[in-house]
Each structure stands twice: as structure tokens, then as C-alpha cells.
Amino acid sequence: MLAEIIMYIIIFMYGIVLGSFLNVLIYRIPKGEGIAMKSSHCMSCGMKIKWYDLIPVISYIILKGRCRGCGGTISLQYPLAEAANGAVYVFIFWYNGICFESVLYALMFSVFLVISVIDFRTYEIPFCLNAAILVLAAVRLIWEQKNIVNHIIGFVSVSGFMLVCLIVGRKLKGIDAFGGGDIKLTAAAGLFLGAEEVILGFLAGCVLGAVIHTVRMKVSGEDHVLAFGPYLCGGMFIAMLFGHEIIDWYAGTLML
Q: What is the mean pLDDT of residues 97-124?
């Protein structure tokens, strides 16, 4: 029992450390800044941040959300992203077991998290993040070496449907039903998940988007135009972790 607790603590620590790097990606990728060449600095005064002020979650608490140099406010996004990444890592390994598949799931969640925040802010999904999912998909296919055809179908099934909707929408009404980044996201995620799970993830994302964004429009007066990426990522994460159980349950209800 003690060994298991220690293991999950290590997983959490690894998750929040990687979460700190995710914050760098979230800030720098949309700006086109180098990830490794420029040291961490305050967004208000530009002061270089010392190593002891870069401890995930803890430094934010110690500094009370303020820059040590200028006293400027540090975004709450930083500790939240770090803590969320660590907590979800623990949940993934607890739910799915200690295995290589869980490592891939954890890394997929991290990419989903970065995509969600960037798309929510900019309405764009950088291609490099979809490429990262493709790399994880390739690793999974090489590692498992099974159901490759199903994964290839997953690559084109939902993304192909979205592409047709995009083309038809532009020709008939001059509107974009989906963004290009969303289509690339479903293609990459489909290669990782496979046909059944990417369809489930897409449907779950649509439900999440419809419900959550409708509430946001009523509560905070949000525009009807939404960033679909965060909801797609949420749906794909649900399908990735719970897809088999949901599909088996649904198939069972059809047999009744």
C-alpha cells in the first residue's frame, strides 16, 4: 500500500513538472517564440525568473500569485494547468493501470490540454500539436501492432465527414462548418484511437460543446461562435479512457 502511494506521488510530481512545460507551450507557440532558447520570465516586467520560483504549484502559492520583482499578477492558469496535469496523470494510471498504454494516454492528455487552452484563446490549433498526436499514434501502432486497419479508418472517418461539411458549407452558405485545425485534430486523434472511439469522441465533443457553450452564452453573454477544439479534446479524452466501456454498454443495450 505504501509503495503504491509513493508511486502515485511520483506520477503526480512528474505530471506537474510536465505541466509547467505545458504552460511554456501555451504561451510561446501562438507567439512563435522558441521553446528552449528563451528563459522563463515575468510577463509584466520581463525579469528572468529564478529556478526557486519555478517550482510547479508551490512557487505560485509562496509568491501569492505575484512576481517577486515587480509584484505583477501571475495568471492562475499556471498552477491550474500544472495541478490538472498531475491529477489527471494519477487518475489515468489508477484507472488504466501501470502500463505503456497509460504513458501514451497521459501524454495525449497533455497535448489535449495545450490545444484546448490555445484554441480557447486564439481560435486556432497549431499544426505542431496535431503533429505531436500523430507521433503518439505512430508509437502506439508500432507498440501494439494490431487493428492497424481500424486505426487507419479512424484517421479518415470523422475527419473526412468534417471535411465534406466544410466544403459543402462554404459552397452553399459561405460559412465554415469546422475549422481546418479541428479536422486535423480528429484525423490525428482518429489514428490514435481507432474508428469506433474517434466517432464516440466526436459525438461526445459535440454534446459537450452544445451544452457548455449554450450555458456560457446565457450566463456570460458569449458569442455563438465557439472554439470547438476544447470540446473535441474533451470528447476524445472521454473516448480514449472510457471508450471500450461505453461502446460495450451501448452494444449491450441494443441486445436487450
A: 96
DSSP one-letter code for 29: T
Give the per-residue pLDDT at 82.
Answer: 95
Rounded CA-CA distance 218/249 in Å is 34
Could you tell me which residues come within 8 angstroms of residue 134 by beta carbon, excluding any fewer than 6 positions away?
Answer: 188, 191
Any residues with CB less than 8 A from the CB of 144 and at least 6 apart, and which? none
**Residue 230 pLDDT grade (very low, low, confident, very high; cuts 50, 70, 90):** very high
How distant, in Å, are the alpha carbons of 27, 60, 133, 188 from that of 176? 27, 41, 24, 20
Nearest residue to 202 via CA among 248, 154, 245: 154
Q: What pLDDT sits at residue 37?
A: 58
All structural domains of the chain with their residue ranges = 1-98, 124-256
SS3 percent helix, strand, coil of the chain, rounded to 5, is 75, 0, 25
- Dihedral of CA 201/99/133/27: which sign? positive
- Check: CB of residue 138 under 8 Å from CB of residue 182: no
Does the pLDDT at position 36 exceed 70? no
The CA distance from 152 to 252, in Å, is 26
